[in-house]
Fold this protein.
Amino acid sequence: MKDEWSFIPQLPKSQCEEIFVDVGRNVKLRILKWTPLDSTFEEANQLIMIPGWGSVFEGWRPLLSEWVSRRSIIYIETREKKSAIIGKKINKKDFQMSEHAKDLIEVIKYFELDMNKIDWFSSSLGATILLDAFQKETIGGRSAIFIGPNINFKPPLWANLLLRFPIPKFVYPLLSKIVLFAVEKRVKEEGQRIRYRRMFKAQDLLRMMFSARYNIDYKMNLEFPDNKIYSAILSAESDKLHALDGVMKINESLPNCQLINIPSNQYAHESGVLTEIEEFHNSLS
C-alpha cells in the first residue's frame, strides 16, 4: 500500500520542500512548503494551511496543484497524523486543542513569520484548532478561511461508549473499519468517500484513538474577543459530517466573519474554489 506520509508532492509551477519542525515536548511535525517558480506571485502575506483530522495530502491535490503556482503555502500535518515524530508515550492530553496551538506557534517561530501577516486556510479539526486559539488569543493573523469547523464532536452513541472504555490494540483495525462504514453512510459525494477511505487506511490508529477520546468531550467557547482578523467560513448544506448549526453559531459569534455558501464539501478541495478564496483575499487589500 502506498505510504501517504513519505513522498514529497512536486506540483506544477512550484518547488516543494519537506521540513520536520521540532515543536518541543518530544514532537516533530512534518511541514510541506511550496514556493511558486514565478516570482511575480510573491506576496507580503504567508498562507498557512491546516488540513483536517487525519487528512492526507492526496485529498487536497486538486486544489493545491493550482494554488501553489500562485502563492507560497506552508502545509502543516498536525500531531495526530502518522507523519509526526513523537518520541514519548502518548495519551489523550497530548491531543488537546492547546497542544495543537503550541505546535502552530513553534512553526510560526521556525519560519520567522509576522503573525499579523498570515492568511490561514483550515479544514475540520484544523479549523477548530485555529478558532480555539483565536478565542484564547494565543494565535492571530491577517485573515482566516475555515471549512467545516466544529464547535464540538458528537459521535454516535455506540462510538461514544467504545471511545470511553479501554480497548485492546488488536481491536483498533476493526474499529477503524466500523467507523469508516458509519462515515460513508452519512456521506453522499463519491469524492468525499474516496478521501475518507484513503485517510482511514493511512493512520496511526493509536494516535487517532487518543485524539478522538479527547475530541468527544471538547466544546468550543463561542465568546470570541473583538479583533481585526478577517474570516470566512466555506460551508455546504449537503455536508452532513460538519454540523451546519455549529457553523452558523460560529459565524454569528466570530467578529468580522462572513459565510460563503459552496456547492459541496468536495468542491472545497478542488481548484474551482479558488474563485471564492481569491475574491475574499482580494477584498482585504
User: Anything to note?
Assistant: The mean pLDDT is 88. The radius of gyration is 18 Å. The first helix runs from residue 61 to 67.
